[in-house]
TrEMBL record:
It catalyses: propanoyl-CoA + hydrogencarbonate + ATP = (S)-methylmalonyl-CoA + ADP + phosphate + H(+). Pathway: Metabolic intermediate metabolism; propanoyl-CoA degradation; succinyl-CoA from propanoyl-CoA: step 1/3. SMART domains: Biotin_carb_C. This is propionyl-CoA carboxylase. InterPro entries: ATP-grasp, BC-like_N, Biotin_BS, Biotin_carboxylase_complex, Biotin_carboxylation_dom, Biotin_COase_C, Biotin_lipoyl, CPAse_ATP-bd. It comes from the Bacteria. Its EC number is 6.4.1.3. Pfam families: Biotin_carb_C, Biotin_carb_N, Biotin_lipoyl, CPSase_L_D2, PCC_BT. It is an enzyme of class 6 (ligase). Keywords: ATP-binding, Biotin, Ligase, Lipid degradation, Lipid metabolism, Magnesium, Manganese, Metal-binding, Nucleotide-binding.
Length: 670
């Protein structure tokens, strides 16, 4: 076994690999850019080597610097994680030439499967079901339109060297085919250095289900079951689970057998994933093979008990697999939620900044469930514009699917992140969504269920009860502490007001304290309106970000954040600004005028921090609704900004290459 390995990556996957290496007694070397000098993975490793500026193209993607770091530290092997150089056959060949082992498949397999056109041909020859499409390269936008028409709309336009949802567009007509070709080609060139494009039929109502394979250098090859990855946004996975709630044993076996056949066809060694599109009748079609460790590998580990990183290390060291296909059992259910630095209320636009507070739920047992959190950040870490926006991967395991979902919901309620925007509110709301809970999924789930984007749902009756009870409990404890401060001009009367009004956003709720003393631990009975009394118990102390306790016998974890004259309360995807006041104050509060937001209707604002790729119009130009105005790149994704209405460009305030903050004015209109 290796004595020292270098992890050629950053963030949570670098930390994930180091955890297993440390358990196996293997020393680790981290590499880092200027932006990651204080990163968690750097502190976690036994050694660390600086490899360049923040841009990945000048650091994490420079093979020469990775190899130099190996030589400097004496690392025997390189684990690439995912992304960056993980599927770069040229990098593997360079390592081999230097006598350094690549912890992954051989270059032959990477080349064969890394090119989507070649991989589909090999898959077809190996007897794997493939999607109808054009396997040649697309020359230009008009060629794309012609091919799309021959295949029949809708079609999927893809970068041949793509991955992670980049360089992919769905086209439903000729205009979208032209634009999709241009955008996919541009994204592919900037993300992968390879702008080749191909087109295939887009399967409607599809599920994205993948099979985990594992093979050694001694001829053994097996699969570890499937992962359901249908909850996606812009072709980027958001929530994954294992196993799939859709597959039956027969389909699972068939998909597994075809995946193993494909892996054997390219003499695969290491862990890899074969991805399929599955239609509503359980017909499945080969999509691509990822010759690396997948982001969502933890759910497979949780249901099989097999550490995939450990197996990758052992295979790379020349060991044979110590188990066979018959030994692989799927036990229970696992869910993974990807925690991203993005604002779901602003159409999931990237958010950057410092984590002023980062308090993930504690790993380990959570009732009958198990909680796991793979992360690469800590409180104080910086989320920059240079890399992927992932903060953490929160995973839960339980004997049954709904139990795993409920555990995830509870864990998300306890996950506290401040300083940036994040997608936890969306994930928390998703866990309560009936279609998700029933397992009625497709890759269009988010677009179909949230066609106008995500907005935190308004609290229903039961949720209002919980939020109002927590808000009142927090406010009464706060007032009690103020009343008991030493040095008061007048002593505390000891009188506790019984009648209150809790304002949840614009909803005023009359709340009365039926019985109870305000102390820690708190126990009180309250009545909201004319409803039956509600018992509230908690040991929460002011300043703690999560209020944990019982409301009418139900255990809840509600996040509380101070705002002006109140607190923001959030629970299971529902959030509200809560202000607790006496009835007379509430009467006056209803009369207060509402401040109107400034008019920005004649401005194009930058929706996220990012880099201006192009400006498509000029000063004085008339534009029509839907016309492209600018393209802004953020966290490796290009975002097209369009005109919302007809108008004339009066002033352009930005130019290609400019770095803009959120809400920066790109252009103004007459």
């Amino acid at each position: 076994m290796f004595k020292k390995i270098l992890v050629a990556n950053r963030g949570e996957i670098a930390c994930r690999v180091m955890k297993t290496a440390r358990r196996m007694g293997i020393a680790t070397v981290a590499v880092y850019s200027d932006a990651d000098a204080d990163a968690v993975h750097v502190d976690m490793a036994d050694e660390a080597v600086h490899i360049g500026p923040p841009a990945a193209s000048q650091s994490y993607l420079v093979a020469d610097r990775i190899i130099a770091a190996c030589k400097e530290t004496g690392a025997e092997a390189v684990h690439p994680g995912y992304g960056f150089l993980s599927e770069n056959a040229g990098f593997c060949e360079r390592l081999e030439a230097e006598g350094i082992i690549f912890i992954g498949p051989k270059p032959k397999a990477i080349k064969a499967m890394g090119d989507k056109i070649t991989s589909k041909k090999i898959a077809a020859e190996a007897g794997v079901s493939t999607v109808p499409g054009f396997m040649g390269l697309i020359d230009d936008a008009e060629h794309a339109v012609r091919i799309a028409g021959e295949i029949g709309y809708p079609v999927m336009i893809k970068a041949s060297a793509g991955g992670g949802g980049k360089g992919m567009r769905i086209a439903w007509n000729d205009d979208e085919a032209r634009e999709g070709f241009e955008r996919s080609k541009s994204e592919a060139a900037s993300s992968f250095g390879d702008d080749r494009i191909f087109i295939e039929k887009f399967i409607e109502e599809p599920r994205h289900i993948e099979i985990q394979v594992l093979a050694d250098a001694h001829g053994a090859c097996l699969h570890l079951g499937e992962r359901e990855c249908s909850i996606q946004r812009r072709n980027q996975k958001v929530v994954e689970e294992a196993p799939s709630p859709f597959l039956d044993a027969e389909t699972r076996a068939a998909m597994g057998a075809q995946s193993v056949a494909l892996a054997k066809a390219v003499d695969y060694q290491s862990a890899g994933t074969v991805e399929f599109i599955v239609d509503k009748n359980r017909n499945f079609y080969f999509l691509e093979m990822n010759t690396r460790l997948q982001v969502e590998h933890p759910v497979t580990e949780l249901v099989t008990g097999i550490d995939l990183v450990e197996q990758m290390l052992r295979v790379a060291a020349g060991e044979a697999l110590s188990f066979g296909q018959a030994d692989v059992k799927l036990n229970g259910w696992a869910i993974e939620s990807r925690i991203y630095a993005e604002d779901p209320v602003r159409n999931f636009l990237p958010s950057i900044g410092r984590l002023t507070r980062y308090r993930p739920p504690q790993e380990g047992r959570l009732g009958d469930a198990v909680l796991r959190n793979d992360t690469g950040v800590a409180e104080g870490s910086e989320i920059s514009m240079f890399y992927d926006p992932m903060i953490a991967k929160l995973c839960t395991w339980a004997p049954e699917r709904l139990d795993a979902i409920n555990a995830m919901s509870e864990a998300l309620d306890r996950f506290v992140i401040d300083g940036i925007e994040h997608n936890i509110p969306f994930l928390a709301a998703l866990m309560s969504h009936p279609r998700w809970r029933e397992g009625r999924l497709s890759t269009g789930f988010i677009a179909e269920e949230f066609p106008d984007g995500f907005a935190p749902p308004s609290p229903m009756a039961g949720e209002r009860t919980v939020l109002a009870a927590v808000a009142l409990a927090v406010e009464l404890l706060r007032r009690d502490r103020l009343d008991r401060l030493t040095g008061r001009l007048a002593p505390h009367s000891g009188e506790l007001k019984r009648d209150w009004v809790v304002r949840l956003d614009d909803d005023y709720l009359s709340v009365s304290l039926v019985e109870g003393m305000i102390s820690i631990p708190l126990e009180m009975d309250i009545r909201i309106g004319d409803a039956d009394p509600v018992t509230v118990r908690s040991s929460w102390r002011p300043g703690e970000p999560v209020w944990e306790g019982d409301v009418n016998g139900r255990t809840v974890a509600v996040q509380v954040r101070p705002i002006l004259n109140g607190v923001q309360v959030a629970w299971q995807g529902v959030a509200a600004n809560a202000r607790v006041m006496l009835p007379r104050i509430a009467e006056l509060d209803r009369l207060m005028p509402v401040r109107e937001a400034p008019d920005t209707s004649k401005m194009l604002l930058c929706p996220m921090p990012g880099l201006v790729v192009s400006i498509a119009v000029t000063t004085g130009q008339e534009v029509k609704a839907g016309e492209i105005l600018a393209v802004v790149e953020a966290m490796k994704m290009e975002n097209v900004l369009r005109a919302e209405r007809d108008g004339m460009v009066a002033k352009i305030n930005a130019a290609p290459g400019d770095s803009l903050a959120v809400d920066a004015v790109i252009m103004e209109f007459e």
